[in-house]
Design goal:
mainly alpha; globular
């Protein structure tokens, strides 16, 4: 888990460099350690920014604006999968299941890899 948090921090730092140029969809994600219950009540913007960090960690940090656009497309897909998972489980499970575990499961099912 410490490695995951470290990688997320690194991914966040790299994507922050792109914030100088317009679209800041990847800023403000705070759900990295959250449960699916918290995910359910979070804003779309927060969920998308968090999944942007997950995607950068999974497929690699973007090195260009074109790669950042690709990260956004993948983040939108991953956000939808995690949100669908969160919506389909009971509150008891949502309180115990972490968003990051669901992100890993969704990414695996969707075939994301470096």
């Amino acid at each position: 888990m410490k490695i995951l948090i470290g990688l997320l921090v690194a991914a966040s730092a790299i994507t922050a460099a792109y914030a100088q140029e317009g679209d800041k969809w990847f800023q403000g994600g705070t759900l990295h350690k959250s449960s699916l219950a918290a995910w359910k009540t979070a804003t779309y913007e927060n969920r998308l920014a968090t999944t942007g960090d997950y995607v950068a960690m999974i497929i690699g940090s973007p090195k260009s604006y074109e790669e950042m656009d690709h990260v956004k497309v993948v983040a939108i897909q991953l956000e939808a999968c995690i949100t669908q998972t969160a919506s389909s489980v009971s509150d008891a499970i949502a309180n115990r299941q972490s968003a990051s575990d669901s992100a890993i499961a969704c990414a695996t099912m969707m075939g994301f890899r470096r």
